[in-house]
């Protein structure tokens, strides 16, 4: 009897040990669930915050920058490149204006950069005129006359940009006049080349090469002026 009772008691002990295992597992699971939930919530919050920051940055960029259009920076080099992007010869525009020594504050708006582009045009065309001034060829003498006319129109355009305090450098009427003068200067340069071609001048290849930069600079000036309103609107500016 005693032995039987002993075995029966042993069996009860085993049963208790077996039952204790599930209870321990439940306890661990109960302890882990809040931890897992907390970690999951933190991860979701971090992901939400990250996505929010990315969307905010994207919206800010969309508001401040028109797709496909460069931004205007306080840095003069970036400003020049932004304005020159509307021209037919943007690299020529940038290199020509950047080569100038700025005697005043560095340009950071379309009007100032337009004025510098005119200076580049005048300098290049003056240099070209000097290169053909000593020729006795009849066709080149006619060309010199055309170039002098072109220089006169460009110098008039540049002078029109010099205004006193309180005066606008550009007005609607002035923009119209400048477009007429610069267009005429371009026509004068083309007329020079046409005359050399008609007279079958042997100087034509040399003249074309030497005049190329001046033509590009003049074209750039006209393009900047033609897009002046667009440039100012893009950068939330007005004529001043």
TrEMBL record:
The keyword Hydrolase does not apply. CDD domains: PMEI-like_3. SMART domains: PMEI. InterPro entries: Invertase/methylesterase_inhib, Pectinesterase_inhib_dom, PME_Inhibitor. Residues 75-224 form the Pectinesterase inhibitor domain. Its EC number is 3.1.1.11. One of its GO terms (molecular function) is enzyme inhibitor activity. It holds the Pfam family PMEI. It is an enzyme of class 3 (hydrolase). It comes from the Eukaryota. The chain crosses the membrane at residues 35-58. Coiled coil: none annotated. Keywords: Disulfide bond, Glycoprotein, Membrane, Signal, Transmembrane, Transmembrane helix. Belongs to the PMEI family. In the C-terminal section; belongs to the pectinesterase family. This is pectinesterase. It comes from Morella rubra (Chinese bayberry).
